[in-house]
Amino acid sequence: MTTNLRAGRNPSSASRLPAASAAKRPAEIPASSSAPERPRERLLAHGPQVLTSAELLAIILRTGIKGCNAVALSHRLIQHCGSLRELLAAEAATLLALPGLGHAKACEILAISELSRRALEESLRNGETLDKPQRVKQYCAARLAHLEIEHCVALFLDNRLRLITCDEVSKGTLSQASVYPREIVKAALRHHAAAIILAHNHPSGLAEPSQSDIALTHHLRKALALVDIRLLDHLIVTRNVTVSLAEQGVL
Which homologous superfamily is 3-9+128-244 in? Predict the structure, then answer.
């Protein structure tokens, strides 16, 4: 049986700067050459919380470009992407299209994003996930919120409700993804899971569950119950909010 997850069309994404050609890419210069304050020294003296997002990013990037120090470059990158989260969620091709970002800087940003996702996943593996539902939402948002087409993932949990693995079970278009409950059941048995949390994104930004979302939730819960596996929740993720169908009483 196939069940469609439906959401509205995604609005236009934030504009991106055109790619700078390799021949015209400005030479990098040290971050401190034109910056009156040194973010590294402030971080060591007062802690990271006193620095702006642009200053923290500048510490990672280390250098700016001609006429633009590392802090100014970081601020510009965040502005062009719309937010820090959008910048950290960007794919390699998008990052490389931004003037001032070569392969080294793009790799640094990609590495930060992946480390953040892994840290959240590690906390789920080591803790009781039901004791930290907000952390589950944060993990699913980090994985899904920025995506421009609909994806569906399943978090497979052991009998202590710790994360075994998170698998993508469906990838769709701008407005829908097809989910096969029988495939999720087969994957749950393969992973020896005791419970599952399902999550998918709505690129449109509409966080309300559709009738298809609710129908899928009920159908999957019944299918999993036949093999003594619980469906704990079904999360709907948008750029700004994550909604729990369990909290809404659907489960």
Answer: Cytidine Deaminase, domain 2 (3.40.140.10)
